[in-house]
Amino acid sequence: MKDKTPANINIKNRRASHEYTFLAKYDAGMMLHGTEIKSIRAGEANLQDGYCTFDHKGDLWVHSLRIAPYVLGTYNNHDAMRTRKLLLNKRELKQLAGKMDAGLTIIPLRLFVTDRGFAKLEIALAQGKKLFDKREDLKAKDQKREMERFIR
């Protein structure tokens, strides 16, 4: 009998908060092939270089999201860097498409598995930070760390 407990898979894009300012966040489903979900449950995914684009039909696709080939997969194993379709409501797709102006991009933040066993991708509408914004964020983090050190 299989264990029905949900897998605590939570793969994050740690670099994203340093490089971008998030304007809105969405949870999107993904269309996956058979061995891709097994690799995700094994924690074999990388979101670092991922980005999302719209095609001419208005569908949202994620590019450069690496899901490693499944170790026990056969010749039916998936391509690690293929583009994957994201599943959102029409209302959410229209909101994102309307906000895709100059300087805005859609990036993946987190890949997780729900209690029902579905893989979801948390995406964000983001704006790139300038160098001085990054420095200010680092200063704020250092000040917060120093304050916590003095409080203890």
Task: Please tell me about this protein's structure.
The protein has helices at 16-19, 34-41, 90-99, 131-151; strands spanning 10-12, 20-30, 45-46, 51-54, 60-63, 66-67, 84-87, 104-113, 119-128. The protein is an alpha+beta fold and 152 residues long. A seven-stranded antiparallel beta sheet has the order 1-8-9-2-7-5-4. A two-stranded antiparallel sheet has the order 3-6. Strand 4 and strand 5 (60-63) form a beta hairpin. The longest helix is centred in the last third of the chain and has 21 residues, at 131-151.
How much of the sequence lies in strands comes to 25-35%
Task: Count all strands and give the number.
Answer: 9
- Could you list the spans in which at least 5 consecutive residues all have pLDDT below 50? none
Supply the helix-strand structural class.
alpha+beta
Helix content: 25-40%
Rg from alpha-carbon coordinates: 18 Å
Shape designation: globular
First and last CA, distance: 48 Å
Name the strands of the widest sheet in spatial order: 1-8-9-2-7-5-4
- How many strands, which pairing sense, and closed or not: the largest β-sheet? 7 strands, antiparallel
In short:
The chain has 152 residues and is α+β, with helices and mostly antiparallel strands. The protein contains four helices and nine strands.
Task: Give the tags.
7-stranded antiparallel β-sheet; two-stranded antiparallel sheet; 28% helix; alpha+beta; 4 helices; globular; 152 residues
